[in-house]
Amino acid sequence: MNVLKFNYFNVYYQNVRGLRSKTQEFYKNLCNSNFDVIILTETWLNDGILDTELFDHKYSVYRRDREVGGSSKKKDGGGVLVAVLKSLHSKRIFSFESSGEDIWITFDIKHNKLTQKYLLCAVYLPPPVTITSVDTFVDNCNRVFELCDLHKLIVGDFNLGCIDWNLAGRSTDSLPGMAEVLVDFHCLNNLQQLNSVVNSSNRVLDLVFTDIINCKVINSSTTLSKIDPLHPPLVITLPFQQTSHLQNNPNNKYLNFRKADYEKINEALDAVDWASLFDNCVDVNQMVGSFEGTLDQIIERSVPQFFKKQTKYPPWYTRNLIRRLNEKEKIRTKVRKYNNPLDVLELRILKKRCDSLLTDFYNNYIRNVENKVKNDPKYFWTYIKMKKNAHNCLPATMTDHNGSSSDGTSICNMFGNFFAASVSQGVNTSLGGASDCGTLCADTFSNIKIRHNELKQKLESLDVSKGAGPDGIPPLFIKRCSKTLMTPLLLLFPLWCR
């Protein structure tokens, strides 16, 4: 069953004037926001700052940091960044980028069984802006538009405060050459410049060009970074119809091996006549299948199960904070719809309360991580791994020469096919001694003998703090059941080695 509803697609834009010293502030503000796309200019980032220091797992992050040092003559600073919700299936188009500071992204909005594709460009023209830099950007845009016929959205800091966009298009006689080029560009391509939010100098430096109908630009009441008076943050809203589908059950089943009844498990394993069970099998593969099937049945009867609900929130979020955030979003929806002054006041109060709670919980979480470095270093490294290996390090869409995919299973199959082809191409079949080597290896493995004491020692020396392997069985289970697992393993190991 599908339910149609009218919704808004929100794009946040801000010239942040550097993020290196504001990563924690930005991250906490991001957790208290709900934007579909985030565009930042003048990020001042470099490869020493991870995406996960700024964004959580919900976003695919695309950066074009300014190249400094080496052969580059540019000064430190600049840089553009675009973060897109993973549900939008975004992709960076490197071939569309110019020699300046711009980044081009395509993303999809799906509604009513239809998919609308959008082309987004984030750009920064550093001062002093010259006619050469404007020409370079405009020429590149015209080239891109010839190659790509999608809905367009160009957002960035153009540093051209000399243009009165209320009069732009009527006459360009009084404009300097570089401003005239930009005005002509937007007229010839049927683009609108929608930003009318002036800065502290009563000028507009940040521009929003688009051909999307009913697109609106307003001053953002929510900020992700400290506001520069010359660059007020913006929210760009795109109305669209969204199709909501009934969701699958998001609960995942887990086995709690730490609370398993190992006395009952060992009794069940000891009662199995493994020799008779394996006698009915035609080969070692069937024997292994019987062994795993018997083990799974015993585990299912004796290991308690629990259901862990997937969450989109960071680990320091409490139920109280989540409840407050949901309340704030409900009030924000009412403000957007009715603009009632009382709702606006309530939203302001809730926002301050959420900001305070989020800051307190985040600081307590970081303090707890730091305090456990000495006594529980594993907790600290879990936090580091969460930052380094977060899901947003993986792109929402992966592409090879045969096509692209946004489905996890399909992506795994793409990797499998690629490596299978690489291995098959790399096999050298011209070696005359290959068959002799195979015979020698088979003879060597068939002579391997597994001794009872050696196997027992290896099983009992397993590190129970480690996680489970591909079969889902952790070392804790194997170690606690080592005595009763000895019989089937001693029967199977010699056959595996043949």
From TrEMBL:
Alphabetical list of InterPro entries matching this protein: Endo/exonu/phosph_ase_sf (IPR036691)
Gene3D superfamilies membership: Endonuclease/exonuclease/phosphatase
SUPFAM superfamilies associated with the record: DNase I-like
PANTHER family in UniProt: REVERSE TRANSCRIPTASE DOMAIN-CONTAINING PROTEIN (PTHR33395:SF22), TRANSCRIPTASE, PUTATIVE-RELATED-RELATED (PTHR33395)
Protein known as: Endonuclease/exonuclease/phosphatase domain-containing protein
Organism: Loxostege sticticalis
